[in-house]
Write a structure and sequence with these properties.
2 copies of one chain form a homodimer. The first copy, chain A, has 240 residues and is an alpha/beta fold. Helices cover 37% and strands 10% of the residues of chain A. Chain A has one domain: HUPs (Rossmann fold, 3-Layer(aba) Sandwich). Chain A has 9 helices and 5 strands. The longest helix of chain A has 16 residues. Chains A and B meet through strand 3, helix 4, helix 5 and helix 6 of A and strand 3, helix 4, helix 5 and helix 6 of B.
């Protein structure tokens, strides 16, 4: 709980925060805390080959004072052939500005729908409709389930699905505070909120020694973000 | 694979069918087969206390010639306090006509959204957008996520979520062939398609000997369905 941004972990209304352990979701968790929510972080382990993400999520949840952190395994066979679950090669060396031109091999079928559905179940059982997720439609990797029209449609569906919503006891609200932010703005926002990015993990394809490849889309976006923010990435500089 | 309704298991386009192991989902699987789909049955085990459902699903998938059957565990803690996961009492002795008047304690937070999200991931990885589910809005238990407006909203969201949908390679279609059928019609349809209801399971709260309680909503709806269809329930009569 040390070094956390925001208030005491038990204060405020509850919110569920999707937490992958990367830069965006860590920043999103810090924002939810700063907005006064008692955060319940949810990490889904779906056999992604960058499993160090799950470890990073645990560290980040503790660092940012989440009231609870749940890691859920989901059978990776369900998601079939994505580069992130080992069935295809992770693209390397692409220009971040070109990434959004096509949906890449790292797309995972229905990933955000599965994540949000699980978050929704937990949220209703906690008595809240507030769900935060760190999706981004600017410096994003071209995934359709990161677009604002997708989020609007999910929210609408969710308000028809839940007993508590139908009975007027809550309203499902998807909070995507990073949706229209550049990676540079995201890194700057998180740094201001005290996020230690040295605890986060971004690489899709670490080397055998467990170091980031620095060539996959995610590594390149991260590097671009720190450069644009004028900050050094503590993952490489050794500092926080 | 013996005694199945429909064609050969490997024929036709693929569809994912949500299969709980009860009367409705078994009938729905038989309908999907009869419509020429190569069925991929999906059973989610979320810690429901009627775990005999999961065993029933396995038997039904084999009986009805599903090309594949996947059972997925999902952490029951996520769903909090539902009578189906053990946190509250299962209501008994209610009149089926009164069940739809209020959402009962057997409601499970976001259950169909979680089930459909998982089905959606599997469907896209199989290259299909066809998903069958046995929900019913006539003799139903008053669940909001069994209503047509919910299904429409899910379908709309799903067509914005999937890469294959956005790229025009498939369209997500939720097939709910039982939506406007009475329980009696459902039993009659299934019987005509050769469904052996002696393999299915409905009870929310079996006795210690593993026998149906015959008093929970699900048992009473089942009994009402067989009575209306003018058929004997093979679960009690010992025959098929």
């Amino acid at each position: 709980m040390e070094g956390r941004a925001g208030g005491a972990p038990d204060a405020g209304p509850a919110a569920v925060v999707l937490l992958s352990g990367g830069v965006d979701s860590a920043t999103c968790l810090a924002i939810a805390r700063a907005r006064g929510f008692r955060t319940h972080a949810l990490t889904v382990h779906y056999g992604q080959r960058h499993a160090c993400e799950v470890e990073a999520a645990r560290r980040v949840a503790a660092h940012l004072g989440a009231a609870a952190h749940r890691t859920l395994p989901v059978d990776p066979g369900l998601f079939g052939g994505s580069a992130l679950t080992g069935a295809a090669a992770v693209p390397k060396g692409r220009d971040p500005r070109a990434m959004a031109a096509a949906i890449p091999a790292t797309y995972v079928p229905a990933r955000n729908t599965v994540f949000l559905a699980l978050a929704l179940a937990w949220a209703e059982s906690l008595g809240t409709g507030d769900i935060f997720l760190g999706v981004n439609a600017v410096d994003y990797s071209g995934y359709p389930d990161c677009r604002p029209e997708y989020l609007d449609a999910f929210e609408r569906m969710a308000n028809l699905a839940l007993k508590a919503a139908v009975e007027g006891r809550l309203t499902v609200r998807l909070h995507a505070p990073l949706l229209r932010r550049t990676k540079g703005e995201i890194v700057r926002m998180g740094a201001e909120l005290g996020v230690d990015y040295g605890l986060t993990w971004s690489c899709y394809d670490p080397d055998p020694g467990g170091r980031p490849c620095r060539e996959c889309d995610s590594c390149r976006l991260r590097a671009q973000g720190f450069a644009a923010a004028g900050l050094r990435d503590p993952l490489f500089s050794g500092g926080a």
